[in-house]
Design brief:
The protein is built from six helices and 14 strands. The chain has a single domain (5-252), classed as CNF1/YfiH-like putative cysteine hydrolases (4-Layer Sandwich). By secondary structure, the protein is an alpha+beta fold.
């Protein structure tokens, strides 16, 4: 069985927003769990990641990931590190062919970036905290240091929790509102008076467009609402906990 993934025609680089299908993990991790630190059998995760790498045409050792911390640090990758030894950060960029940049998600937004003219790619893990703090703009700045320009950069936001599924408290809204002139447009009232529904993908698109990139797209897929294809932290929370897998999104030159 091959790893199942989704693509967007706007991205010319090899890439995939991988679903949970096409792997060897079992139980709550079934089946293409790519998370090395979630309690799954590491031999299963290694096989899953090897299938992801093969889908992108790179060696398994060249599929790189991070210890994601919901921050704004970006790693510029020149050479691969050992699997599972990625630094604390939430975005990677490179201009080196043969390296696949991967981010792990289970409701947060995976964002893949490509400047075809400069030959530079990026992958970003954008939860609401990282997006509000500026991780997307930080990734574009790191790409610029390699010769990319926002005016030539294409971005695609992959599967993440959608607004209908993402009810949040006032603390999130209060943190996000000052970060963008029209940030209020990405909230709508929830059922309790103090709750709101947040459009994470729309907010990421707005920040990318405000940064001047050439094109910004979203796949428009809700991780919580599609248990057959996607893992979801919020779904796990609503089910009162338990182990969970994570899907991967990756891009390579």
């Amino acid at each position: 069985m091959t790893a199942e993934f989704l693509t967007h025609t706007a991205l010319a680089a090899r890439h995939g927003f991988f679903t949970r299908r096409g792997g060897v993990s079992t139980g709550p991790y079934a089946s293409l769990n790519a998370n090395l630190s979630g309690g799954d059998d590491l031999a299963h995760v290694a096989e899953n990641r090897a299938r992801v790498a093969a889908s992108l045409g790179v060696a398994a050792s060249s599929l790189l990931g991070l210890h994601q911390v919901h921050g704004t640090k970006v790693i510029t990758v020149a050479t691969p590190w050992r699997t599972g030894q990625g630094p604390d950060a939430d975005a990677l960029v490179t201009n080196r062919p043969g390296l696949a940049l991967g981010v792990i998600t289970a409701d947060c937004a995976p964002v893949l970036l490509h400047d075809a003219a400069a030959g530079v790619i990026g992958a970003v893990h954008a939860g609401w905290r990282g997006a509000a703090a500026g991780v997307l703009e930080a990734a574009l700045e790191a790409m610029a240091a390699l010769g990319a320009t926002p005016a030539h950069t294409i971005a695609v936001v992959g599967p993440c929790i959608a607004q209908d599924s993402y009810e949040v408290g006032p603390e999130l809204r209060d943190a996000v509102l000052p970060t963008l002139a029209n940030a209020g447009a990405f909230f709508r009232p929830g059922r309790p008076p103090d709750r709101q529904h947040f459009d994470l993908a729309g907010y990421c698109l707005a920040r990318l467009r405000a940064a001047g990139i050439a094109e910004a797209h979203t796949l428009g897929l809700d991780t919580l609402a599609d248990p057959e294809r996607f893992f979801s932290h919020r779904r796990r929370t609503l089910a009162r906990g338990g182990p969970i897998g994570h899907q991967i999104s990756a891009i390579a030159l």
